[in-house]
Amino acid sequence: MLSPNLILLYVEDPQESAAFYTRLLRCEPVAAFPNYVAYALEGGLTFSLWSTRAANFVSSGSGHRMELAFMVKDDGEVERLYMEWRNAGVSIEQDLMTAVFGRTFVALDPDGHRLRVCTPDK
Question: Rounded to an integer, what distance in angstroms lies between the CA atom of residue 116 and that of residue 92?
Answer without folding.
Answer: 10
